[in-house]
């Protein structure tokens, strides 16, 4: 029973982080039609900034907020400096074919990962570092009983729940959220309604950058920080979006939690070496039964 | 007044507008009719900024619209209801309407509220369905929604692209009547594109007949309606 509960808590806290990664990916996919493979590269960079600040005696919380801001700015910069020029009408004739138009941003995002990893290697000498947690990450004891979760698990789950709540309210209840949904669903009608769709697109990149930098801060304590530690998280987050439905925010979030739980249960009841097999089997089942993902819409697969 | 001079718009090698000139008088309905492929939609899309003009001039309220983006053209008082009941089906009816006024919600909060109420008063069926997804509406209701979305931006010029397309005659009658009322009562200038020439000429003040991207006739609507030879040559009946 204890084993079961600890698998549930560990899985939920891991799943919350994957949900954040998926949220970031879906935001950019819906807002800009790009799968941003640079997302966790950006997060690695902002986490290094936080880590450097903490090593220089700044408090965890100051470093935490600076990292979020760096992540947000990095997201916007990737759009303004790379993606927007690439989608401009005046770009080369090579961009005229629809297949290339879809591929080039992906190649560009892979290029950005390369640049960010190289830059991190140069600035921080590619040294592996630990990363602290703001609360205890060892088993919690209450009244002499060892709890099946750690304080850090609760912290992660709590903060992600708050983020998801704010995101939901933002998209469902605010004018800017409506503008973002409209731009993603039908850019032409959105523009005719006066919505500045290119600014909205930059905002999607920025919010996505914020979500992924948060994911970076929350996941790094359980790995060591190095220029490519977050690659694996990106793959799992991407799998979560495919399971949940690439064009659905709630879908990606649910996919993240499902993956977190599956990974945790395989880890506890079988062995860590079976994790990838389990993910693959889960992915295949979803793709066979519901190719558009749990909450995805059918049209998206045609893109 | 909307003034179009020698307007040329191309899609690659296809010249959809081949030197168009005409004016749309303030507070009047000008209808643009012509066979399928004549360039009617391209004309509206070029005015609203969705397509880029190759050459020529579009002047609205003494300012050129050439080179402006759609999101800034709508701010100058021009609302475009594109072909095919353009609403966003995954958003609710009220969200679709609200969307049309988002760009001016900060400065004119009370007027936006009023404009939305007016739209619902104009089309009470939308008020009943305000929380439904737009995708669940009938064709006629979608067209009403698309028009409402445009109206809440408080346009001075309304560009309507084939509002009658695929709708039952009774619904067409109601929609056209509403547009006519708006024009007569509030001085809205309307550019109404129609393939259904009889419906359009019945309410319009002026008629512009397009063929293969050129203006072949520009007359008061009644005269165009009465000209059997023009109709036979360009509309096929
Ligand atoms: N997106 C497009 N790409 C290429 N050609 C187009 C496009 N849209 C319209 N055309 C062509 O431009 C001409 C005018 O089309 P359109 O303005 O849609 O006419 P109408 O609205 O009068 O039916 C037609 O020959 C049409 O095939
Ligand atoms: Mg047309």
Highlighted features:
heterodimer, A: 303 residues, mainly alpha, 71% helix, globular, B: 6-stranded mixed β-sheet, 10 helices, 10 strands, 38% helix, binds adenosine-5'-diphosphate, binds magnesium ion
Structure characterization notes:
The complex is a heterodimer of chains A (303) and B (237). Helices cover 71% and strands 3% of the residues of chain A. Chain A has 11 helices and 2 strands, in the order H-H-H-H-E-E-H-H-H-H-H-H-H. The longest helix of chain A is centred in the first third of the chain and has 31 residues, at 2-32. Chain A starts with a helix and ends in a 14-residue tail after the last helix. Chain B is an alpha/beta fold and 237 residues long. Chain B is built from 10 helices and 10 strands. The complex binds adenosine-5'-diphosphate and magnesium ion (MG). Magnesium ion binds next to helix 1 of chain B.
Structural class of chain A: mainly alpha
Summed up, the helix count of chain A is 11
- Give the biggest sheet of chain B: 6 strands, mixed
Strand content of chain B: 25-35%
Shape of chain A: globular
Provide the succession of SSEs of chain B. EEEHEEHEHHHHEHEHEEHH
Q: Which kinds of small molecule does this entry bind, naming each only once?
A: adenosine-5'-diphosphate, magnesium ion
Count of beta strands of chain B:
10
Order of helices and strands of chain A: HHHHEEHHHHHHH
Task: Please state the oligomeric state of the protein chains shown.
Answer: heterodimer
Structural class designation of chain B: alpha/beta
Number of strands of chain A: 2
**Portion in strands of chain A:** under 5%
Query: What radius of gyration of chain B results from the CA coordinates?
Result: 17 Å
| CA-CA gap between termini of chain B | 32 Å
What are the low-pLDDT stretches of chain A, counting only 5+ consecutive residues below 50?
Answer: none
What general form of chain B does the structure show? globular
Q: Biggest protein-protein interface?
A: A-B, 18 and 27 residues
């Amino acid at each position: 029973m204890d084993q079961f509960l600890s698998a549930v808590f560990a899985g939920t806290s891991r799943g919350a982080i994957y949900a954040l990664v998926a949220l970031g990916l879906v935001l950019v996919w819906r807002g800009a039609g790009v799968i941003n493979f640079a997302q966790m590269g950006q997060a690695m960079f902002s986490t290094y900034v936080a880590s450097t600040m903490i090593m220089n005696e700044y408090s965890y919380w100051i470093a935490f907020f600076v990292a979020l801001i760096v992540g947000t700015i990095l997201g916007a910069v990737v759009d303004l400096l790379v993606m927007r020029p690439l989608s401009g009408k005046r770009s080369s004739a090579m961009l005229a074919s629809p297949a290339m138009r879809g591929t080039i941003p992906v190649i560009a995002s892979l290029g950005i990962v390369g640049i960010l990893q190289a830059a991190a290697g140069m600035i921080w000498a590619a040294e592996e570092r630990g990363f602290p947690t703001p609360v205890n990450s060892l088993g919690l004891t209450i009244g002499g009983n060892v709890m099946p979760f750690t304080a850090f698990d609760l912290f992660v789950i709590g903060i992600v729940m708050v983020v998801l709540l704010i995101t939901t309210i933002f998209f469902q209840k605010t004018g800017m959220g409506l503008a973002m949904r409209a731009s993603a669903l039908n850019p032409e009608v959105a523009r005719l309604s006066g919505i500045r769709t290119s600014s909205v697109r930059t905002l999607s990149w920025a919010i996505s950058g914020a979500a992924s930098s948060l994911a970076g801060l929350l996941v790094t304590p359980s790995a060591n920080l190095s220029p490519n530690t977050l690659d694996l998280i990106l793959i799992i987050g991407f799998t979560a979006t495919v399971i949940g439905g690439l064009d659905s925010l709630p879908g990606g979030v649910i996919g993240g939690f499902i993956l977190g739980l599956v990974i945790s249960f395989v880890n506890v009841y079988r062995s860590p070496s079976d994790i990838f097999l389990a993910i693959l089997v889960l992915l295949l089942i979803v793709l066979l039964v519901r190719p558009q993902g749990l909450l995805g819409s059918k049209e998206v697969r045609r893109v | 007044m909307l003034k179009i001079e020698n307007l040329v718009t191309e899609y690659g090698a296809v010249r959809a507008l081949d030197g168009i000139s005409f004016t749309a008088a303030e507070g009047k309905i000008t209808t643009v009719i012509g066979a399928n492929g004549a360039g009617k939609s391209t004309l509206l899309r070029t005015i609203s900024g969705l397509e880029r003009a190759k050459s020529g001039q579009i002047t609205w309220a003494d300012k050129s619209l050439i080179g402006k983006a759609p999101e800034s053209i709508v701010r100058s008082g021009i609302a475009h209801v594109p072909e095919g009941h353009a609403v966003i089906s995954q958003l609710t009816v009220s969200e679709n309407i609200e969307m049309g006024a988002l760009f001016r919600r900060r400065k004119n909060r009370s007027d936006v509220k009023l404009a939305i109420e007016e739209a619902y008063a104009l089309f009470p069926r939308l008020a009943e369905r305000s929380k439904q997804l737009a995708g669940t509406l009938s064709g006629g209701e979608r067209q009403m929604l698309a028009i409402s979305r445009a109206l809440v931006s408080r346009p001075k010029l309304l560009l309507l692209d084939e509002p009658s397309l695929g709708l039952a005659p009774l619904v067409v009658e109601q929609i056209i009547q509403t547009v006519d009322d708006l024009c007569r009562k509030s001085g809205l200038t309307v550019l109404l594109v129609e393939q259904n020439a009889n419906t359009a000429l019945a309410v319009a003040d002026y008629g512009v007949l397009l063929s293969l991207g050129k203006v072949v006739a520009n007359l008061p609507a009644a005269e165009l309606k009465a000209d059997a030879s023009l109709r036979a040559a360009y509309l096929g009946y």
